[in-house]
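Quick illustration, no need to memorize.
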Amino acid sequence: MTDDASTSSVSGGSKPGPAADDDPGPVNALDAKPGEVIRATTGMFPAAAVSSGHHHRDPDPTGKRLAILTLTALGVVYGDIGTSPLYSVKEIFGHLYGLQPTRENVFGVLSLIVWALTLVISVKYVSFVLRADNRGEGGQFALLALIFPRGTPHSFTKGGVFVALALFGTALLYGDGIITPAMSVLGAMEGLEFAIPSLAAYIVPITVVILGTLFAVQRFGTDLVGKAFGPITLVWFITIAVLGAAEIVRQPGILAAVNPWYAVQFVQANGSLSFFVLGSVVLVITGGEALYADMGHFGARPIRLAWVILVFPSLLLNYFGQGALLLENPAAAENPFFLLAPSWFLVPLLIIATLAAIVASQAMISGAFSTTRQGIALGFIPRLEIRHTSKVEEGQIYIPEVNWFIAVGCLIVVLAFRNTSNLGAAYGIAVTGTMLITSVLFYLVARIRFRWEPWQALLLSGLFLTVDLFFFGANVVKLMHGGWVPMALGLVLFLLMLTWKRGRALLTQRLNEGTMPIDLFLDGVEKSKVHRVSGTAVFMTSSADGVPPVLLHHLKHNKVLHERVLLMSVKTADVPETTPAERVRVMPLGQGFWRVIATYGFMQTPNIPQVLEVVDQMGIRAKPMETSYFLGRERLIPVGNRANDRVKLPKWRKVIFALMARNARGATAFFGIPPNRVVELGTQIEF
């Protein structure tokens, strides 16, 4: 069953109704005139529909609430960037570049690290990008909704290049989601060489077991594990800060590396080698995109506070500590992170590092679930199974297909690359590509939403782009050494998302060509005296006007209609969430017909039975055991393009779209419709 043909109309331009405070009060739909739009009031909604989960948070928390959010953000937001010290300095001075840990090189590299963290994370993300929130939500899809709030990103006629960029950036995040768990856990397990040398030969098998277990427990939800994320990461940051500070005390002169002149001298002395070294320096900022993507979970203030008070200082102390160790003992370049620790602390450090790596991995997995749900709602990804693993938190979801896709990819990466030195070549290109795209889109947000002058937006975005281009360019040269893996994966996923979106637009056009105007249909119903049977029929339709094809097929073959007929459309607004008062609109059409439009945000999962509970309270009888649902099941037959097609696709992409549509999750399960109340009518469509 295709997404457009039967059930859901996804429109970024759907405009929610008035706020709850503007509700006119309860209205009985039976008293309304044909064409009059009636909105549900908040009191009509069941408790489950009113509860909106993690998005309804205090936009400006203080006191205890701020402390709790800040602690929680440590685990979810900073797990990835927080585990970078495990491998970053090791890779910079590894065999890939042949860079020796001389005093000049150590000072130069540390200066590059300090200013990479400062410019990219502190200035770009913490200070500016976090301002680009869509009702508190961040990420590539939220950026699209900010730039094109009236639905233009879905037309591909205006801003198509920027839409494609955002889609490609999202696709790259999946590649990052595959590599991050592998890199983090491998980096932690490599500490076995120093903590428990007898187990060094089992680093890869142990990593596989840890990752396999992590993915296997995803179906139980992250609620219980998530409560431990913050404290674990807090212990991690305190630990790495103390280890670094202890070494700095022995070599306090290392703090002079904060001077950017050392970075300039490093570039002058090493020439083109310094450019290639940036490909590993970028490892210190991987996870920076998570600050923006996860903003909807906690808000900008806790994320900023955690960075300024703990994360940034701890990272700097540890990196300076590793640099001080290299000055004292150049041989420590083998693994400067674990060699910072005294021998008696190696095993406890290994345990803490492993837990931190698991937290970092979990954050990426949860982020992939959240991104996928946004993509499904906005019509870029086929319907997949979304399981809610918490009765309290809306954001606690599990998507089996995504989980096992990332799991298989992650395990293949571990077995193929086997250590962080090899994997380091593949890591970074996905991150820098996404950061580059964010900088481009931020320029549009600054001009359109912030209303900055062109020179202001260009000056700041130009600075961000320059830094991002250097990092991206340094990683592009690693394509042949493993960097092709996330890039190839990103290109494939980008093609699939683009094909799905354009295929849905083409299919919608085909369906609309055979749609009968509702007035003409109702006149026919009145004149033909169609037999009416008791009960309520719900016909799912992607169009907010006209007669759905499934209704025409039903009437043609069964020659009866129910007493009450609801034409149900589900739309997605360009905001993360709609309030209950914004969600349901009903319009009487006459002859016992009503059009019902349910509008959800792109971070919400539609639930049709809850919508019908509201409709029932509005006076239209829609009791569960008296209601039947009629859905269309289309068999798609790819053919050549027609001259009047607004969207044209090569036949091979139509074949891919048809295959994706056939394997997409059915509307019955996706919308929570009781399967024993569903009637499906099949038809063939050439498109």
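The chain has a mean pLDDT of 84.
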